[in-house]
Amino acid sequence: MSSNPQVLISEVGPRDGLQSVKATMPTPAKLSWIDALYASGIREIEVASFVPPKLLPQMADATEVVRHALTLPGLTVMALVPNLRGAEAALKAGVHKITLPVSASAAHSLANVRKTREEMVEEVRRIDALRRDIAPHVKMEAGISTAFGCTLQGAVAEDDVVWLAGAVIEAGADESGLSDTTGMANPAQVRRIFNRVRAEIGDKAGAAHMHNTRGLGLANCLAAYDVGVRTFDSSLAGLGGCPYAPGASGNVVTEDLVFMFEAMGVKTGIDLNKLIAARAPLMAGLPGEPLYGMTPESGLPKGFVQELAYV
Amino acid sequence: MSSNPQVLISEVGPRDGLQSVKATMPTPAKLSWIDALYASGIREIEVASFVPPKLLPQMADATEVVRHALTLPGLTVMALVPNLRGAEAALKAGVHKITLPVSASAAHSLANVRKTREEMVEEVRRIDALRRDIAPHVKMEAGISTAFGCTLQGAVAEDDVVWLAGAVIEAGADESGLSDTTGMANPAQVRRIFNRVRAEIGDKAGAAHMHNTRGLGLANCLAAYDVGVRTFDSSLAGLGGCPYAPGASGNVVTEDLVFMFEAMGVKTGIDLNKLIAARAPLMAGLPGEPLYGMTPESGLPKGFVQELAYV
To answer: Is B150 a catalytic residue?
Structure first.
Protein backbone atom coordinates (compact mmCIF):
# COMPACT_ATOMS: atom_id res chain seq x y z
CA MET A 1 0.00 0.00 0.00
CA SER A 2 1.20 3.50 -0.71
CA SER A 3 -0.48 6.85 -0.79
CA ASN A 4 2.50 9.13 -1.26
CA PRO A 5 2.83 9.87 2.43
CA GLN A 6 3.46 13.49 3.39
CA VAL A 7 4.69 12.61 6.86
CA LEU A 8 6.65 9.61 8.10
CA ILE A 9 5.27 7.95 11.21
CA SER A 10 8.12 6.09 12.88
CA GLU A 11 6.67 3.46 15.20
CA VAL A 12 8.74 3.03 18.35
CA GLY A 13 6.46 0.69 20.33
CA PRO A 14 8.48 -2.51 19.84
CA ARG A 15 11.52 -0.73 21.30
CA ASP A 16 10.50 2.24 23.46
CA GLY A 17 7.21 0.63 24.45
CA LEU A 18 8.42 -2.85 25.26
CA GLN A 19 11.52 -1.77 27.14
CA SER A 20 9.34 0.28 29.49
CA VAL A 21 7.00 -2.47 30.61
CA LYS A 22 7.92 -5.08 33.21
CA ALA A 23 6.72 -8.08 31.25
CA THR A 24 8.75 -9.49 28.38
CA MET A 25 6.76 -10.02 25.20
CA PRO A 26 7.52 -13.46 23.72
CA THR A 27 9.40 -13.28 20.43
CA PRO A 28 6.63 -14.81 18.26
CA ALA A 29 4.21 -12.20 19.65
CA LYS A 30 6.65 -9.41 18.78
CA LEU A 31 6.91 -10.68 15.22
CA SER A 32 3.11 -10.87 14.86
CA TRP A 33 2.77 -7.35 16.21
CA ILE A 34 5.43 -6.00 13.83
CA ASP A 35 3.68 -7.78 10.95
CA ALA A 36 0.39 -6.11 11.90
CA LEU A 37 2.03 -2.69 12.11
CA TYR A 38 3.58 -3.26 8.69
CA ALA A 39 0.25 -4.41 7.27
CA SER A 40 -1.33 -1.10 8.32
CA GLY A 41 1.16 0.76 6.13
CA ILE A 42 3.79 1.72 8.69
CA ARG A 43 7.15 1.83 6.89
CA GLU A 44 9.61 2.64 9.68
CA ILE A 45 9.75 0.70 12.94
CA GLU A 46 12.23 0.89 15.78
CA VAL A 47 12.14 -2.85 16.39
CA ALA A 48 14.68 -3.33 19.15
CA SER A 49 17.36 -1.91 21.38
CA PHE A 50 20.86 -3.43 21.31
CA VAL A 51 21.69 -3.36 25.00
CA PRO A 52 23.03 -6.04 27.35
CA PRO A 53 20.22 -8.53 28.12
CA LYS A 54 21.13 -8.19 31.78
CA LEU A 55 19.94 -4.56 31.68
CA LEU A 56 16.91 -5.06 29.44
CA PRO A 57 15.83 -8.69 29.20
CA GLN A 58 12.88 -7.51 27.08
CA MET A 59 15.35 -6.85 24.25
CA ALA A 60 17.34 -10.12 24.47
CA ASP A 61 15.88 -11.28 21.13
CA ALA A 62 16.90 -8.13 19.26
CA THR A 63 18.84 -9.96 16.54
CA GLU A 64 16.01 -12.38 15.86
CA VAL A 65 13.45 -9.56 15.71
CA VAL A 66 15.64 -7.60 13.30
CA ARG A 67 16.11 -10.66 11.10
CA HIS A 68 12.34 -11.05 10.78
CA ALA A 69 11.68 -7.36 10.19
CA LEU A 70 14.22 -7.37 7.36
CA THR A 71 11.94 -9.75 5.42
CA LEU A 72 9.22 -7.06 5.15
CA PRO A 73 9.70 -5.26 1.80
CA GLY A 74 10.12 -1.51 1.99
CA LEU A 75 10.29 -1.38 5.77
CA THR A 76 13.05 0.69 7.32
CA VAL A 77 14.29 -1.42 10.22
CA MET A 78 15.63 0.74 13.02
CA ALA A 79 17.29 -0.10 16.29
CA LEU A 80 18.32 1.96 19.25
CA VAL A 81 21.94 1.67 20.32
CA PRO A 82 23.29 3.22 23.53
CA ASN A 83 26.96 3.00 22.56
CA LEU A 84 29.61 1.66 20.15
CA ARG A 85 29.18 -1.90 21.34
CA GLY A 86 25.43 -1.82 20.73
CA ALA A 87 26.01 -0.19 17.36
CA GLU A 88 28.34 -2.99 16.33
CA ALA A 89 25.76 -5.61 17.25
CA ALA A 90 23.00 -3.72 15.42
CA LEU A 91 25.11 -3.27 12.29
CA LYS A 92 26.01 -6.96 12.31
CA ALA A 93 22.33 -7.84 12.67
CA GLY A 94 21.70 -5.93 9.45
CA VAL A 95 19.51 -2.99 10.49
CA HIS A 96 18.90 -0.15 8.01
CA LYS A 97 19.20 2.62 10.54
CA ILE A 98 20.55 3.07 14.04
CA THR A 99 19.50 5.72 16.50
CA LEU A 100 21.64 6.84 19.40
CA PRO A 101 20.11 8.93 22.19
CA VAL A 102 22.30 11.83 23.23
CA SER A 103 20.97 13.78 26.17
CA ALA A 104 20.99 17.56 26.24
CA SER A 105 20.71 17.38 30.02
CA ALA A 106 24.03 16.73 31.70
CA ALA A 107 22.29 15.00 34.62
CA HIS A 108 20.14 12.77 32.40
CA SER A 109 23.14 11.83 30.24
CA LEU A 110 25.00 10.50 33.26
CA ALA A 111 21.92 8.71 34.61
CA ASN A 112 20.93 7.18 31.27
CA VAL A 113 24.26 6.15 29.71
CA ARG A 114 26.86 7.04 32.40
CA LYS A 115 28.64 9.37 30.00
CA THR A 116 28.93 13.13 29.71
CA ARG A 117 27.43 14.83 26.69
CA GLU A 118 30.87 15.46 25.25
CA GLU A 119 31.73 11.79 25.67
CA MET A 120 28.55 10.90 23.78
CA VAL A 121 29.55 13.15 20.90
CA GLU A 122 32.82 11.22 20.74
CA GLU A 123 30.79 7.99 20.79
CA VAL A 124 28.91 9.26 17.72
CA ARG A 125 32.26 9.80 16.03
CA ARG A 126 33.43 6.28 16.86
CA ILE A 127 30.16 4.74 15.70
CA ASP A 128 30.36 6.71 12.46
CA ALA A 129 33.88 5.36 11.86
CA LEU A 130 32.72 1.80 12.53
CA ARG A 131 29.75 2.18 10.24
CA ARG A 132 31.86 3.54 7.40
CA ASP A 133 34.07 0.54 7.90
CA ILE A 134 31.56 -2.32 8.06
CA ALA A 135 28.15 -1.02 6.88
CA PRO A 136 28.44 2.27 5.01
CA HIS A 137 24.87 2.12 3.68
CA VAL A 138 23.35 2.21 7.18
CA LYS A 139 21.91 5.55 8.35
CA MET A 140 22.66 6.96 11.75
CA GLU A 141 20.41 9.26 13.75
CA ALA A 142 21.52 10.90 16.96
CA GLY A 143 18.37 11.99 18.77
CA ILE A 144 18.67 14.75 21.33
CA SER A 145 16.86 13.48 24.41
CA THR A 146 15.56 15.72 27.23
CA ALA A 147 15.60 18.47 24.60
CA PHE A 148 12.69 20.27 26.25
CA GLY A 149 13.38 19.75 29.93
CA CYS A 150 14.64 17.16 32.37
CA THR A 151 13.03 15.57 35.41
CA LEU A 152 16.43 15.47 37.08
CA GLN A 153 17.87 18.92 36.42
CA GLY A 154 14.72 20.87 35.43
CA ALA A 155 15.12 23.32 32.57
CA VAL A 156 17.55 22.52 29.74
CA ALA A 157 19.19 25.48 28.03
CA GLU A 158 18.08 25.88 24.41
CA ASP A 159 21.65 26.79 23.52
CA ASP A 160 22.74 23.36 24.78
CA VAL A 161 20.23 21.64 22.50
CA VAL A 162 21.31 23.62 19.45
CA TRP A 163 25.00 23.08 20.24
CA LEU A 164 24.52 19.34 20.74
CA ALA A 165 22.50 18.89 17.53
CA GLY A 166 25.29 20.64 15.64
CA ALA A 167 27.96 18.61 17.43
CA VAL A 168 26.47 15.19 16.65
CA ILE A 169 26.05 16.10 12.98
CA GLU A 170 29.65 17.32 12.87
CA ALA A 171 30.66 14.01 14.48
CA GLY A 172 29.04 12.05 11.67
CA ALA A 173 25.33 11.52 12.37
CA ASP A 174 23.06 11.79 9.31
CA GLU A 175 20.27 13.42 11.24
CA SER A 176 19.37 14.68 14.68
CA GLY A 177 15.83 14.70 16.02
CA LEU A 178 14.52 16.16 19.25
CA SER A 179 12.94 14.11 22.02
CA ASP A 180 10.67 15.30 24.77
CA THR A 181 11.82 12.39 26.91
CA THR A 182 10.24 13.85 30.01
CA GLY A 183 6.94 15.20 28.69
CA MET A 184 7.80 18.80 29.52
CA ALA A 185 7.59 20.41 26.05
CA ASN A 186 5.08 23.04 25.03
CA PRO A 187 4.14 24.10 21.49
CA ALA A 188 5.82 27.51 21.61
CA GLN A 189 9.08 25.90 22.75
CA VAL A 190 8.78 23.14 20.12
CA ARG A 191 8.48 25.70 17.33
CA ARG A 192 11.29 27.83 18.71
CA ILE A 193 13.80 25.02 19.25
CA PHE A 194 13.10 23.16 16.01
CA ASN A 195 13.49 26.45 14.16
CA ARG A 196 16.82 27.07 15.85
CA VAL A 197 18.04 23.52 15.22
CA ARG A 198 17.01 23.76 11.58
CA ALA A 199 18.93 27.02 11.28
CA GLU A 200 21.95 25.13 12.65
CA ILE A 201 21.81 21.83 10.76
CA GLY A 202 19.22 22.38 8.01
CA ASP A 203 17.59 19.28 6.56
CA LYS A 204 19.50 17.10 8.97
CA ALA A 205 16.98 18.06 11.65
CA GLY A 206 15.13 14.79 12.19
CA ALA A 207 12.09 13.44 14.00
CA ALA A 208 9.94 14.93 16.71
CA HIS A 209 9.65 12.39 19.52
CA MET A 210 6.94 13.67 21.83
CA HIS A 211 5.41 12.31 25.00
CA ASN A 212 1.89 12.82 26.27
CA THR A 213 2.79 13.13 29.95
CA ARG A 214 0.77 16.33 30.41
CA GLY A 215 -1.64 15.79 27.53
CA LEU A 216 0.25 18.02 25.09
CA GLY A 217 1.68 15.28 22.86
CA LEU A 218 -0.46 15.96 19.79
CA ALA A 219 -0.35 19.73 20.23
CA ASN A 220 3.45 19.48 20.26
CA CYS A 221 3.42 17.31 17.13
CA LEU A 222 1.19 19.87 15.43
CA ALA A 223 3.61 22.61 16.47
CA ALA A 224 6.52 20.62 15.04
CA TYR A 225 4.62 20.00 11.81
CA ASP A 226 3.91 23.72 11.54
CA VAL A 227 7.65 24.48 11.47
CA GLY A 228 8.45 21.83 8.89
CA VAL A 229 9.06 18.60 10.80
CA ARG A 230 7.88 15.65 8.72
CA THR A 231 8.94 12.61 10.80
CA PHE A 232 7.17 11.76 14.03
CA ASP A 233 7.92 9.03 16.53
CA SER A 234 4.95 7.46 18.26
CA SER A 235 3.93 4.26 19.93
CA LEU A 236 0.89 2.09 19.31
CA ALA A 237 -1.47 2.35 22.28
CA GLY A 238 0.91 4.91 23.82
CA LEU A 239 3.11 2.17 25.23
CA GLY A 240 6.35 3.33 26.72
CA GLY A 241 8.40 6.07 28.26
CA CYS A 242 11.89 6.26 29.66
CA PRO A 243 12.93 4.07 32.61
CA TYR A 244 15.56 6.61 33.69
CA ALA A 245 13.33 9.70 33.61
CA PRO A 246 10.89 9.18 36.49
CA GLY A 247 7.28 10.10 35.75
CA ALA A 248 7.96 10.50 32.06
CA SER A 249 5.69 7.74 30.82
CA GLY A 250 3.50 8.08 27.79
CA ASN A 251 4.63 8.15 24.20
CA VAL A 252 2.31 9.88 21.75
CA VAL A 253 -0.36 7.38 20.70
CA THR A 254 0.18 6.35 17.06
CA GLU A 255 -3.54 5.86 16.45
CA ASP A 256 -4.42 9.40 17.60
CA LEU A 257 -1.45 10.93 15.77
CA VAL A 258 -2.36 9.21 12.49
CA PHE A 259 -5.99 10.23 12.95
CA MET A 260 -4.96 13.85 13.47
CA PHE A 261 -2.86 13.98 10.33
CA GLU A 262 -5.30 12.06 8.14
CA ALA A 263 -8.21 14.22 9.35
CA MET A 264 -6.13 17.29 8.44
CA GLY A 265 -5.63 15.86 4.96
CA VAL A 266 -1.95 15.11 5.61
CA LYS A 267 -1.26 11.65 4.19
CA THR A 268 0.50 9.13 6.43
CA GLY A 269 0.21 6.09 4.16
CA ILE A 270 -1.35 4.25 7.09
CA ASP A 271 -4.77 2.59 7.10
CA LEU A 272 -6.39 3.64 10.39
CA ASN A 273 -8.63 0.59 10.66
CA LYS A 274 -5.69 -1.76 10.16
CA LEU A 275 -3.64 0.29 12.59
CA ILE A 276 -6.30 -0.08 15.27
CA ALA A 277 -6.43 -3.80 14.46
CA ALA A 278 -2.70 -3.97 15.29
CA ARG A 279 -3.65 -3.49 18.95
CA ALA A 280 -4.91 -7.09 19.06
CA PRO A 281 -1.48 -8.78 18.71
CA LEU A 282 -0.04 -6.22 21.14
CA MET A 283 -2.68 -7.12 23.70
CA ALA A 284 -2.18 -10.83 23.04
CA GLY A 285 1.56 -10.50 23.64
CA LEU A 286 1.25 -8.37 26.78
CA PRO A 287 -1.87 -9.55 28.57
CA GLY A 288 -3.12 -7.13 31.20
CA GLU A 289 -0.93 -4.22 30.10
CA PRO A 290 -2.96 -0.97 29.95
CA LEU A 291 -3.40 0.40 26.43
CA TYR A 292 -4.03 4.08 25.73
CA GLY A 293 -5.56 5.97 22.83
CA MET A 294 -8.76 7.96 22.38
CA THR A 295 -9.45 7.21 18.70
CA PRO A 296 -9.57 3.42 19.16
CA GLU A 297 -12.03 3.95 22.01
CA SER A 298 -14.31 6.44 20.25
CA GLY A 299 -13.95 4.93 16.79
CA LEU A 300 -13.54 6.94 13.61
CA PRO A 301 -16.03 9.79 13.15
CA LYS A 302 -19.25 9.17 11.23
CA GLY A 303 -18.64 9.83 7.56
CA PHE A 304 -14.84 9.77 7.96
CA VAL A 305 -13.30 8.16 4.88
CA GLN A 306 -9.59 7.73 4.40
CA GLU A 307 -8.41 8.13 0.85
CA LEU A 308 -5.83 5.43 0.43
CA ALA A 309 -4.14 4.68 -2.86
CA TYR A 310 -3.22 1.06 -3.34
CA VAL A 311 -0.41 0.31 -5.74
CA MET B 1 -5.43 37.91 41.63
CA SER B 2 -4.68 39.29 38.23
CA SER B 3 -1.83 38.79 35.79
CA ASN B 4 -3.19 40.61 32.75
CA PRO B 5 -4.51 37.44 31.14
CA GLN B 6 -3.86 37.04 27.42
CA VAL B 7 -6.52 34.37 27.01
CA LEU B 8 -9.85 33.89 28.75
CA ILE B 9 -10.50 30.40 30.07
CA SER B 10 -14.26 29.98 30.37
CA GLU B 11 -14.99 27.13 32.75
CA VAL B 12 -18.03 25.11 31.70
CA GLY B 13 -17.81 22.24 34.19
CA PRO B 14 -20.65 23.34 36.50
CA ARG B 15 -22.95 23.41 33.46
CA ASP B 16 -21.64 21.16 30.67
CA GLY B 17 -19.94 18.80 33.07
CA LEU B 18 -22.68 18.39 35.63
CA GLN B 19 -25.48 18.03 33.10
CA SER B 20 -23.65 15.10 31.52
CA VAL B 21 -23.28 12.96 34.60
CA LYS B 22 -26.07 10.86 36.06
CA ALA B 23 -25.62 11.95 39.65
CA THR B 24 -26.86 15.33 40.83
CA MET B 25 -24.29 17.34 42.72
CA PRO B 26 -25.82 18.80 45.90
CA THR B 27 -26.12 22.59 45.79
CA PRO B 28 -23.67 23.30 48.65
CA ALA B 29 -21.06 21.18 46.85
CA LYS B 30 -21.61 23.15 43.63
CA LEU B 31 -21.08 26.41 45.49
CA SER B 32 -17.87 25.12 47.10
CA TRP B 33 -16.60 23.97 43.73
CA ILE B 34 -17.41 27.32 42.08
CA ASP B 35 -15.65 29.10 44.97
CA ALA B 36 -12.56 26.95 44.42
CA LEU B 37 -12.58 27.64 40.67
CA TYR B 38 -12.87 31.35 41.39
CA ALA B 39 -10.07 31.18 43.96
CA SER B 40 -7.75 29.76 41.30
CA GLY B 41 -8.26 32.89 39.20
CA ILE B 42 -10.98 31.72 36.81
CA ARG B 43 -13.09 34.75 35.91
CA GLU B 44 -15.80 33.32 33.66
CA ILE B 45 -17.90 30.31 34.65
CA GLU B 46 -20.90 28.77 32.97
CA VAL B 47 -22.60 27.99 36.24
CA ALA B 48 -25.92 26.52 35.15
CA SER B 49 -28.37 25.69 32.41
CA PHE B 50 -31.88 27.13 32.53
CA VAL B 51 -33.86 24.14 31.35
CA PRO B 52 -36.94 22.43 32.79
CA PRO B 53 -35.90 20.41 35.89
CA LYS B 54 -37.86 17.50 34.43
CA LEU B 55 -35.31 17.29 31.59
CA LEU B 56 -32.19 18.01 33.62
CA PRO B 57 -32.71 17.58 37.36
CA GLN B 58 -28.99 18.32 37.83
CA MET B 59 -29.79 21.97 36.98
CA ALA B 60 -32.87 22.43 39.17
CA ASP B 61 -30.94 24.78 41.49
CA ALA B 62 -29.82 27.09 38.68
CA THR B 63 -31.22 30.26 40.26
CA GLU B 64 -29.64 29.55 43.62
CA VAL B 65 -26.27 28.77 42.01
CA VAL B 66 -26.39 31.98 39.99
CA ARG B 67 -27.29 33.99 43.07
CA HIS B 68 -24.19 32.67 44.85
CA ALA B 69 -21.88 33.15 41.87
CA LEU B 70 -22.98 36.78 41.61
CA THR B 71 -21.39 37.44 45.01
CA LEU B 72 -17.89 36.71 43.63
CA PRO B 73 -16.33 40.04 42.56
CA GLY B 74 -15.21 40.28 38.95
CA LEU B 75 -16.64 36.91 37.94
CA THR B 76 -18.64 36.78 34.71
CA VAL B 77 -21.58 34.56 35.56
CA MET B 78 -22.82 32.71 32.49
CA ALA B 79 -25.73 30.38 31.93
CA LEU B 80 -26.78 28.24 29.04
CA VAL B 81 -30.30 28.79 27.75
CA PRO B 82 -31.91 26.53 25.16
CA ASN B 83 -34.72 28.95 24.25
CA LEU B 84 -36.62 32.16 25.04
CA ARG B 85 -38.17 30.71 28.17
CA GLY B 86 -34.80 29.69 29.57
CA ALA B 87 -33.39 33.08 28.63
CA GLU B 88 -36.14 34.84 30.56
CA ALA B 89 -35.41 32.76 33.67
CA ALA B 90 -31.66 33.38 33.36
CA LEU B 91 -32.10 37.12 32.88
CA LYS B 92 -34.41 37.26 35.90
CA ALA B 93 -31.84 35.34 37.93
CA GLY B 94 -29.36 38.10 37.16
CA VAL B 95 -26.67 36.40 35.04
CA HIS B 96 -24.10 38.56 33.25
CA LYS B 97 -24.09 36.55 30.05
CA ILE B 98 -26.27 33.96 28.39
CA THR B 99 -25.18 31.46 25.81
CA LEU B 100 -27.55 29.79 23.38
CA PRO B 101 -26.41 26.73 21.42
CA VAL B 102 -27.39 26.88 17.76
CA SER B 103 -26.52 23.76 15.82
CA ALA B 104 -24.96 23.89 12.36
CA SER B 105 -26.18 20.33 11.80
CA ALA B 106 -29.84 20.18 10.83
CA ALA B 107 -30.15 16.71 12.36
CA HIS B 108 -28.51 17.70 15.66
CA SER B 109 -30.61 20.86 15.91
CA LEU B 110 -33.81 18.83 15.78
CA ALA B 111 -32.47 16.22 18.21
CA ASN B 112 -31.09 18.73 20.70
CA VAL B 113 -33.72 21.49 20.78
CA ARG B 114 -36.49 20.21 18.44
CA LYS B 115 -36.14 23.25 16.21
CA THR B 116 -34.67 23.84 12.76
CA ARG B 117 -31.63 26.03 12.44
CA GLU B 118 -33.72 28.84 10.96
CA GLU B 119 -36.13 28.62 13.89
CA MET B 120 -33.16 28.92 16.23
CA VAL B 121 -32.02 32.10 14.48
CA GLU B 122 -35.50 33.51 15.10
CA GLU B 123 -35.18 32.43 18.75
CA VAL B 124 -31.97 34.49 18.95
CA ARG B 125 -33.93 37.47 17.63
CA ARG B 126 -36.67 37.01 20.24
CA ILE B 127 -34.16 36.60 23.06
CA ASP B 128 -32.34 39.73 21.91
CA ALA B 129 -35.62 41.67 22.00
CA LEU B 130 -36.39 40.39 25.50
CA ARG B 131 -32.91 41.21 26.72
CA ARG B 132 -33.07 44.77 25.36
CA ASP B 133 -36.37 45.08 27.20
CA ILE B 134 -35.52 43.72 30.64
CA ALA B 135 -31.72 43.43 30.96
CA PRO B 136 -29.91 45.43 28.27
CA HIS B 137 -26.51 45.12 29.99
CA VAL B 138 -26.50 41.32 29.67
CA LYS B 139 -24.33 39.85 26.93
CA MET B 140 -25.57 37.14 24.61
CA GLU B 141 -23.46 34.53 22.89
CA ALA B 142 -24.88 32.17 20.28
CA GLY B 143 -22.45 29.28 20.03
CA ILE B 144 -22.47 27.23 16.85
CA SER B 145 -22.60 23.61 17.96
CA THR B 146 -21.59 20.64 15.78
CA ALA B 147 -19.51 23.20 13.85
CA PHE B 148 -16.92 20.57 12.90
CA GLY B 149 -19.06 17.50 12.30
CA CYS B 150 -22.06 15.66 13.66
CA THR B 151 -22.46 12.16 15.00
CA LEU B 152 -25.95 12.06 13.49
CA GLN B 153 -25.45 13.45 9.98
CA GLY B 154 -21.66 13.14 9.60
CA ALA B 155 -19.94 16.03 7.86
CA VAL B 156 -21.30 19.56 8.34
CA ALA B 157 -20.82 21.98 5.44
CA GLU B 158 -18.42 24.80 6.29
CA ASP B 159 -20.69 27.16 4.39
CA ASP B 160 -23.48 26.28 6.83
CA VAL B 161 -21.29 27.20 9.79
CA VAL B 162 -20.24 30.53 8.28
CA TRP B 163 -23.83 31.33 7.28
CA LEU B 164 -25.18 30.47 10.72
CA ALA B 165 -22.53 32.51 12.56
CA GLY B 166 -23.45 35.50 10.39
CA ALA B 167 -27.18 34.88 10.88
CA VAL B 168 -27.07 34.77 14.69
CA ILE B 169 -25.01 37.97 14.83
CA GLU B 170 -27.45 39.65 12.46
CA ALA B 171 -30.27 38.43 14.73
CA GLY B 172 -28.73 40.19 17.72
CA ALA B 173 -26.12 37.97 19.39
CA ASP B 174 -23.02 39.80 20.61
CA GLU B 175 -20.71 36.98 19.72
CA SER B 176 -20.68 33.55 18.14
CA GLY B 177 -18.21 30.85 19.09
CA LEU B 178 -17.67 27.45 17.53
CA SER B 179 -18.21 24.17 19.33
CA ASP B 180 -16.80 20.79 18.46
CA THR B 181 -19.75 19.18 20.22
CA THR B 182 -18.93 15.79 18.76
CA GLY B 183 -15.14 15.68 19.03
CA MET B 184 -14.64 15.47 15.25
CA ALA B 185 -12.57 18.61 14.66
CA ASN B 186 -9.00 18.64 13.40
CA PRO B 187 -6.48 21.50 13.58
CA ALA B 188 -6.52 22.30 9.85
CA GLN B 189 -10.31 22.55 9.88
CA VAL B 190 -10.28 24.64 13.07
CA ARG B 191 -7.94 27.17 11.50
CA ARG B 192 -9.90 27.24 8.22
CA ILE B 193 -13.36 27.65 9.76
CA PHE B 194 -12.36 30.17 12.42
CA ASN B 195 -10.64 32.20 9.71
CA ARG B 196 -13.78 32.11 7.57
CA VAL B 197 -16.05 33.00 10.49
CA ARG B 198 -13.76 35.86 11.45
CA ALA B 199 -13.90 37.13 7.87
CA GLU B 200 -17.69 37.05 8.19
CA ILE B 201 -18.27 38.52 11.67
CA GLY B 202 -14.89 39.93 12.69
CA ASP B 203 -14.31 40.39 16.41
CA LYS B 204 -17.70 38.91 17.16
CA ALA B 205 -16.17 35.47 16.60
CA GLY B 206 -16.21 34.03 20.12
CA ALA B 207 -14.90 31.06 22.03
CA ALA B 208 -13.46 27.77 20.84
CA HIS B 209 -15.28 24.97 22.63
CA MET B 210 -13.32 21.80 21.92
CA HIS B 211 -13.75 18.21 23.01
CA ASN B 212 -11.05 15.62 23.54
CA THR B 213 -13.00 12.67 22.12
CA ARG B 214 -10.14 11.58 19.85
CA GLY B 215 -7.32 13.15 21.84
CA LEU B 216 -7.10 16.29 19.67
CA GLY B 217 -8.64 18.74 22.15
CA LEU B 218 -5.47 20.67 22.98
CA ALA B 219 -4.13 20.53 19.41
CA ASN B 220 -7.41 22.08 18.28
CA CYS B 221 -7.18 24.79 20.95
CA LEU B 222 -3.63 25.53 19.81
CA ALA B 223 -4.87 25.75 16.22
CA ALA B 224 -7.62 28.17 17.28
CA TYR B 225 -5.13 30.25 19.25
CA ASP B 226 -2.88 30.40 16.20
CA VAL B 227 -5.64 32.09 14.18
CA GLY B 228 -6.51 34.62 16.86
CA VAL B 229 -9.05 32.96 19.14
CA ARG B 230 -8.55 34.17 22.70
CA THR B 231 -11.46 32.58 24.60
CA PHE B 232 -11.51 28.86 25.32
CA ASP B 233 -14.18 26.75 26.96
CA SER B 234 -12.98 23.86 29.06
CA SER B 235 -14.07 21.75 31.97
CA LEU B 236 -12.22 20.92 35.16
CA ALA B 237 -11.21 17.25 35.12
CA GLY B 238 -12.68 16.98 31.60
CA LEU B 239 -16.15 16.47 32.99
CA GLY B 240 -18.90 16.53 30.43
CA GLY B 241 -20.02 16.13 26.87
CA CYS B 242 -23.36 16.35 25.13
CA PRO B 243 -26.18 13.99 26.08
CA TYR B 244 -27.71 14.28 22.60
CA ALA B 245 -24.52 13.58 20.63
CA PRO B 246 -23.74 9.92 21.34
CA GLY B 247 -20.10 9.13 21.98
CA ALA B 248 -19.19 12.78 22.21
CA SER B 249 -17.98 12.80 25.78
CA GLY B 250 -14.94 14.64 26.92
CA ASN B 251 -14.54 18.38 27.24
CA VAL B 252 -11.02 19.71 27.04
CA VAL B 253 -9.47 19.42 30.50
CA THR B 254 -9.04 22.88 32.05
CA GLU B 255 -5.92 21.86 33.96
CA ASP B 256 -4.11 20.63 30.82
CA LEU B 257 -5.29 23.64 28.77
CA VAL B 258 -4.08 26.12 31.38
CA PHE B 259 -0.78 24.24 31.67
CA MET B 260 -0.33 24.39 27.90
CA PHE B 261 -0.88 28.15 27.72
CA GLU B 262 1.15 28.99 30.83
CA ALA B 263 4.03 26.78 29.63
CA MET B 264 3.90 28.65 26.31
CA GLY B 265 4.13 31.94 28.20
CA VAL B 266 0.52 32.86 27.41
CA LYS B 267 -0.99 34.25 30.62
CA THR B 268 -4.31 32.82 31.77
CA GLY B 269 -4.55 34.60 35.13
CA ILE B 270 -5.06 31.17 36.71
CA ASP B 271 -2.90 29.63 39.44
CA LEU B 272 -2.29 26.04 38.36
CA ASN B 273 -1.78 24.68 41.86
CA LYS B 274 -5.03 26.24 43.05
CA LEU B 275 -6.77 25.00 39.91
CA ILE B 276 -5.66 21.44 40.61
CA ALA B 277 -6.82 21.92 44.20
CA ALA B 278 -10.31 22.71 42.84
CA ARG B 279 -10.64 19.01 41.93
CA ALA B 280 -11.12 18.20 45.62
CA PRO B 281 -14.55 19.85 46.00
CA LEU B 282 -15.57 18.40 42.62
CA MET B 283 -14.66 14.90 43.82
CA ALA B 284 -16.38 15.51 47.15
CA GLY B 285 -19.58 16.55 45.37
CA LEU B 286 -19.56 13.70 42.86
CA PRO B 287 -18.10 10.70 44.66
CA GLY B 288 -17.01 7.92 42.33
CA GLU B 289 -17.20 10.00 39.16
CA PRO B 290 -14.09 9.46 36.97
CA LEU B 291 -11.90 12.55 36.66
CA TYR B 292 -9.58 13.14 33.71
CA GLY B 293 -6.49 15.23 33.18
CA MET B 294 -2.82 14.41 32.63
CA THR B 295 -1.24 17.42 34.36
CA PRO B 296 -2.87 16.74 37.75
CA GLU B 297 -1.62 13.16 37.52
CA SER B 298 1.96 13.93 36.47
CA GLY B 299 2.26 17.14 38.46
CA LEU B 300 3.91 20.31 37.22
CA PRO B 301 7.35 19.84 35.62
CA LYS B 302 10.45 20.20 37.77
CA GLY B 303 11.51 23.82 37.78
CA PHE B 304 8.19 25.05 36.38
CA VAL B 305 7.34 28.39 37.94
CA GLN B 306 4.24 30.35 37.09
CA GLU B 307 4.73 34.09 37.09
CA LEU B 308 1.59 35.41 38.71
CA ALA B 309 1.09 39.08 39.49
CA TYR B 310 -1.03 39.74 42.54
CA VAL B 311 -2.77 43.10 42.70
So the answer is: no
